[in-house]
Amino acid sequence: MKAWVYGQHGKPEDVLELESEVDVPDVNDNQVLIKVLAASLNPIDFKRMGGSFKATDSPLPTVAGYDVAGVVVRVGSKVKEFKVGDEVYGDIHEQAHHPKDCGSLTEYTTVDEKVLALKPKNLSFAEAASLPLAAQTAYGGLESAGLSAGKSLLVLGGAGGVGSFIIQLAKHVFGASKVAATSSAGKLELLKTVGADLAIDYKNNKYEDLEEKFDVEFDTVGESSRGIKAVKEGGRVVTIWPAGPVVPPSFVFVVTSTGSVLSKLNPYIEEGKLKPVIDPKGPFPFSNAIEAFSHLQSGRATDKVAIYPIP
Fold first, then answer.
1. What is the predicted pLDDT for the residue at 299?
2. E strands along the chain, which residues?
3. Which one, of 94, 78, 81, 100, lies nearest residue 25 by Cα?
4. Is the dihedral of CA 51, 18, 288, 307 positive or negative?
5. pLDDT over 70, % of the chain
6. Contacting residues for 43 by C-beta, under 8 A, at least 6 apart
7. Backbone phi, then psi, for 178, in 5-degree steps?
């Protein structure tokens, strides 16, 4: 099969190669084999490729990618929830910092049953592939921070893949009373489109100086130490991108992927309350994966960078 593989750590343009003679992986008892139809990229992809998880990563060479959407073509002997022909999606690495060797940037991949869910009926494969890691990170972080109905939220970096889902989840699932979010000036309209009540240009406004303080803050950009000033006494600050020492009331959230969270969110997705937002430059075809990585790393990407079709 064809797959994007790297055999040493470094930048995608230096180490990632499209190989055409990669073995289709074997299926264990609790796994399914998926014909991959779409994938999406995340910042953790190039952090992993750069060697950030050397101590816990699978051995090189490895196939890149976390998010996947596709069709089940084979099932292990102990698989109960899925059958051949099911359209599924998920983040194929249960532990983000302990990824397995075969990722999603390939024609076929094996996935543990427990991290998959049925694809929402109203989404394309590219749209579905854009959701798993971002949606689960957003949901888990908000849950861990104690966001609940009637509480207010500030999102640092609301126009990213995780940020836009934080806003939508806060409004439509957790029942937040008010959601404010930061971005660059060119992405303020996007924040409003996905549900932000207050869109803040972070370059021209100091969100920590706002008269209003927030019950919860979700930091996706590494500014939790600065963001503490924007929360109420007794509030919580959850960060997924610590840029230094994290001190209370801040804490770091690391997602554990599970299909049960995606299944829980599927009704909201199928009702149109939660919507994927794919970067307008994409989807990128499979052959242009390096270009897609470059776009994501440039900082100019809006929401999720999708790879479709595959191959």
1. 84
2. 3-6, 17-19, 31-41, 62-63, 67-75, 87-91, 108-112, 116-118, 152-156, 178-183, 198-201, 214-219, 231-239, 250-252, 305-307
3. 100
4. negative
5. 100
6. 241, 296
7. -155, 140
Per-residue pLDDT at 280: 93
Q: Under a CB-based contact definition with an 8 Å cutoff, are residues 240 and 256 in contact?
A: no
Q: What is the pLDDT of residue 300?
A: 86
pLDDT of 243 reads 84
pLDDT on residue 241: 87
The confidence score (pLDDT) of residue 244 equals 85
State pTM to two decimals. Answer: 0.96
Element of type H or E holding 168: helix 161-172
Q: What pLDDT is attached to residue 115?
A: 98
Q: Are 98 and 115 in contact (CB under 8 A)?
A: no
Q: How far apart are CA 300 and CA 281, in angstroms?
A: 10
Query: What is the bridge-based pairing of β-strands 67-75 and 17-19?
Result: unpaired
Backbone angles phi, psi at 73, to 5 degrees: -115, -10
Cα–Cα distance, 306 to 62 (Å, whole number): 20
Q: What is the 3-state secondary structure (H, E, C) of 187-249?
A: HHHHHHHCCCCEEEECCCCCHHHCCCCEEEEEECCCCHHHHHHHEEEEEEEEECCCCCCCCCC
- What's the burial of 212, exposed, middle or buried (CB within 10 Å: 0-12/13-18/19+)? exposed
User: Cα separation of 161 and 301, whole Å?
Assistant: 9
Regions of the chain where pLDDT drops below 50: none
- Determine the pLDDT at residue 303: 86
